[in-house]
């Protein structure tokens, strides 16, 4: 086996459409017209007694059970594929980025000859940068 063969097989599995296998099934064909038939995993159709006519004979109808692929499972797979599962909390990332920006600007200011004390310089830089990190401000007010 090679990568192309494995990839090709997986692509065929992904493109499988139950409506293509059962063209006589009205439910699947309607789903195909709506563009969602590829999301259907299983269809069960069975006859059921819906009631009785005036002579006591059973009135037969159809019951349909449709199972689709899980949106939750798809979301889990996408988080793995795109590495979203390992992303830091947005607030933690904003704090880290904010602190790194403060340090970088302080170093640039010192290199350019700013002579104010570090605590005062940090406070000035932080005050000017805060508006660029609204996620930090909203949490600080709560």
Q: What is this structure's SSE topology?
A:
Blueprint (H helix, E strand, L loop, with lengths): L2 H13 L2 H4 L4 H9 L5 E13 L5 E11 L2 H11 L8 H22 L6 H12 L4 H8 L1
Antiparallel strand pairs: 1-2
Helix pairs in contact: 5-6
What portion of residues is helical? 55-70%
β-strand percent reads: 15-25%
Number of E strands: 2
Question: What is the first-to-last residue Cα distance?
Answer: 57 Å
Please give the count of helices.
7
Mean pLDDT: 90
Whole-number tally of structural domains: 2
Q: By helix and strand content, what is the structural category?
A: alpha+beta
Cross-sheet strand order for the largest sheet: 1-2
**Stretches where pLDDT falls below 50 for ≥5 residues?**
none
User: Element order, helices and strands?
Assistant: HHHEEHHHH
Largest beta-sheet details = 2 strands, antiparallel
From the structure provided, what is the oligomeric state, counting identical versus distinct chains?
Answer: single chain
Instruction: Calculate Rg over CA atoms.
Output: 31 Å
Q: What is the approximate shape? A: elongated
What are its keywords?
two-stranded antiparallel sheet; 7 helices; 17% strand; alpha+beta; 142 residues; single chain; 2 domains
């Amino acid at each position: 086996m090679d990568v192309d063969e494995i990839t090709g097989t997986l692509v065929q599995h992904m493109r499988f459409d139950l409506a293509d296998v059962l063209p006589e099934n009205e439910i699947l064909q309607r789903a195909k017209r709506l563009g969602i038939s590829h999301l259907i995993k299983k269809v069960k159709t069975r006859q059921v007694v819906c009631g009785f006519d005036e002579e006591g004979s059973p009135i037969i109808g159809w019951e349909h059970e449709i199972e689709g692929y899980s949106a939750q499972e798809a979301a889990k797979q996408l988080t793995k594929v795109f590495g979203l599962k390992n992303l830091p909390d947005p607030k933690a990332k904003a704090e880290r980025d904010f602190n790194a920006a403060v340090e970088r600007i302080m170093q640039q200011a010192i290199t350019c000859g700013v002579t104010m004390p570090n605590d005062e310089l940090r406070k000035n830089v932080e005050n000017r940068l805060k508006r660029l990190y609204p996620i930090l401000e909203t949490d600080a007010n709560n």
